Structure prediction request, 495 residues.
Amino acid sequence: MADSTAVPTRLLREHPALPVVVLCFGGLVAALTQTLLIPIQGELGLLLGTSQANAAWVITITLLAGAVAMPVAGRLADLFGKQRIIVASAALLLVASVICALSDSLAPMLVGRALQGLSMGFIPVGISLMREVTPPRLTGTGIAAMSATLGVGGAIGLPLSAWIVEGRDWHTLFWVAAGLAALVLLSAWFLVPHVRDAAPGRFDVVGAVGLSVGLVSFLIGISKASTWGWTDPKTLGAMVAGLLVLLAWGFHQVRTDQPLVDLRTTARLPVLMTNIAAVAVGFGMMAQAIVVPQLLELPEITGYGLGQSILAAGLWMAPSGLMMLLFAPVSARLIRTIGAKRTLMVGATVLGSGYVLGFFLMSAPWQLMVACIVASAGVGIGYAAMPTLIMDNVPMTEAASAVGVNGLMRSIGTTTAAAVMATVLTSSTMQVGDFALPTESAFRWCFGLGALAAFLGVAIAAFIPRRETTVTEPVAPGVPEAQSSQSDPAAHAQR
Prediction:
């Protein structure tokens, strides 16, 4: 009987970049589903037979679930093997997309969208898997490209979904997502090597529940602050409750022998400073995604709006998303030549420069496109450096979990950015007919805040010390699970 691992092993030898392509495609699809509904978010209440306030949770719940999924999926990957969790995440995305495609009311749509958010665990696990399934010459580029999919998926999701819904039933969005998810699932199962990288241990259920409750409560407070008001009791109550739960969760983590997140490892200065920088860079990345489409779509009668359709606005934004991917090999080369720390500083500097351009150049669509391209190049460079910094300073058995926490910190930055930008844009408005629209100065304030966040990221990254730990050697690239188990009988018995 033929060995089932022979085909992927042979393919890997002949095409070593194949796992990179598969993992990056999967990350792209997972990130793309996050922005699928943005073109029709104003119509969601009518489409689902509910109020617009309730329909807003269809967007919010995906972001919350994605934030929770990253550290949880990372820990599961360290325990059960990264390729298995990659496949499970792809399967979850497929099921979630089908549920959404069959939904016509709020409840099942919320379930489907929450599951879509949970599939975002694919990205940090895929990043940590790159070192185990690629030859050294491709590892840096693979990690950089996989990291960039967080931004690329969101950037191309807007024009793609706008084009899909033009003249079609909105359910088509999710049928397309289901088809892409099925392709990711098959590719991940058959074309990503089954490396033997699971570590013995147990999953901290109490820790997972505590983290989920604390994060969801805190992020709900942040994400709804622009709607409820920053000083509203609901906002403050959600944020304070979340912080208290997270404090209790942290106390539990340092007392348990097998925590969901090893806070002692996370507290190491290189990891801690990288994660703090991730909040600032994540804030900077999201600000342009919130502000630029609104400025493009505002009517020209305002004197500064550019009067673009949703599809046209998405197309003006699309090149910036592709720029993140194109800068992946550039980032990998920078990491090899000047180190991950300096690469992160370069990326955050370029990101801030893009916002400075946007501050002065906002009178034509092409000007905003140039500003977004510059900012996105910075995101592509910086996002690649962060997981490299993390994995260089944690044991290999904790790599997926640590990268997941870094992804969570970026999510906190993006969620905070969405709330702050919404607050700024609604705090200074002008009346146009029956509508209150943001003023030109409000948009300039947003560009200024984006630049400030990015340059703050540069300052934080400057304090990241040199590598402190020696990383455990990874499994040899391309060694399939069955083969490695046979070559190490003791380890196989331990499994």
Residues 136-165 form the longest helix (30 residues).
